[in-house]
Amino acid sequence: MKALINGLVYPVTSPNFEGSVLIENGKIVDLGPDLEVPEKADIIDLEGMTVIPGLIDAHCHVGILEEGEGWEGNDVNEAYDPVTPQLRALDGINPDGIALKEAVRAGVTSIGVGPGSANPIGGKFTAVKTSGSKVIDDLVIREPIGLKMATGENPKRVYKEQKKVPSTRMSTAALIREKLFEAKEYMKKDGEEKDFKLEALIPLLKNELPGRIHAHRADDIASAIRIAEEFDFELILEHCTEGHKIADYIAEKDIPVVFGPGLAAKSKRENRERNFKTPGVLSKKGVKVAIMTDSPVIPIKYLPLMAGYSVKEGMEREEALKAITIYAAEICGIDDRVGSLEKGKDADIVVMDGDPLELKSRISKVFVDGQEVDLKKKEEMIL
């Protein structure tokens, strides 16, 4: 058993306190301000330090679009078939890449990894830890956590260049509808002949898996909502760059948002209004907001910085911290294990010398499943 004592603890889902956190067998077994520490515990005195849950990036391409690898490490888009629900991000992730090492050094201990946005229907997201094994299966928290779909410029650009459908927003939406309709009809049949792609869509239509739809522009956001309502599946809005324009509408529909990457350049027309005011506007309307890096678009180590910028532009500080902890966990469906410091949850814990959203704060310790990560070794492996 380990006892982290005398720290300023941010449980996230309950009030902050000065006190202790007890860890055993990879789990948090107790925490509180006046905790009696067992004699057998290995005591780690954290006086003057801040203790928070491991951070969570709800949407990235870490390990599937590898940094510093060129085409050899680019497995993010199967851009020759617009409908690929059968793909699993899990099959493309290299857990030994640079980005996972940088993630854990920055206190990001869990990530949602998915295919890119070339395809109207792109494949399945997975949630994994960022440290603990060189075998990706050992790092899985939950798999899958959503089906990636995309609207807007990316699918129409990719397939217009190939002189294939879809080359417009209309055909992108129509293609999604067509495949979902086929899957609904397929579900009515009881034949022996199986269709691999349609089988992969069944969990979405049974509401066992959310649709995570890439949408930047306000009209694309509305299209994503329209399709989700037509086929009655749970929706998560990814990016939501112009969400501030229709924040009331998103709030009325009670749809969670994974916002970002706020630090990226305005590289195309649909994200020309990208700014850090959006998450605060959405949050104040009652929308559950997580913040993403879309790594490697923005290096994953800058996740807390992006939350800090959101506070600077109007988001409540508590909401911004939740956006990279408990809200990210809830949106990914992994909040039973991570996202806050609570009894029974995984002991994914970050220790730092100041406010978690301040740029100057330095991380001194990271625990994943109760095991302290050798941060110096991780740095050497990157360099």
Q: What features would you describe in this structure?
A:
By secondary structure, the protein is an alpha/beta fold. It has 2 domains: 1-52 and 341-373, Urease, subunit C, domain 1, CATH 2.30.40.10; 55-338, TIM Barrel (Alpha-Beta Barrel), CATH 3.20.20. The chain is 29% helix and 23% strand. The chain has 12 helices and 16 strands. The chain has helices spanning 98-105, 136-139, 153-161, 169-188, 196-205, 218-231, 247-253, 277-284, 303-312, 317-323, 326-332, 375-382, and strands at residues 2-9, 17-24, 27-32, 42-45, 50-53, 55-60, 108-113, 121-129, 140-150, 211-215, 235-239, 257-259, 289-291, 349-352, 363-368, 371-372. Strands 1, 2, 3, 4, 5, 14, 15 and 16 form an 8-stranded mixed sheet that branches. An 8-stranded mixed sheet has the order 6-7-8-9-10-11-12-13, sandwiched between helices. A hairpin with a 2-residue loop joins strand 15 (363-368) and strand 16 (371-372). Helix 1 runs antiparallel to helix 12 and helix 4 runs parallel beside helix 6 (218-231). The chain starts with a strand and ends with a helix. The model has no long low-confidence stretch (mean pLDDT 96).
In a few lines, what is going on in this structure?
The protein is of the alpha/beta class and 383 residues long. The chain has 12 helices and 16 strands.
Describe the biggest sheet?
A: 8 strands, mixed
Uncertain segments: none
The tally of strands reads: 16
CATH fold naming of the largest domain: TIM Barrel
What's the alpha carbon Rg, rounded to whole Å? Answer: 21 Å
- Taken from the alpha-carbon principal axes, the silhouette is globular
The helical percent reads 25-40%
Indicate the structural class: alpha/beta
CATH top level of the largest domain is Alpha Beta
Mean of residue pLDDT values: 96
Total of domains: 2
Give the CATH architecture of the largest domain: Alpha-Beta Barrel
The N- and C-terminal alpha carbons lie at a distance of 33 Å
Which percent range describes the beta-strand content? Answer: 15-25%
Number of helices: 12
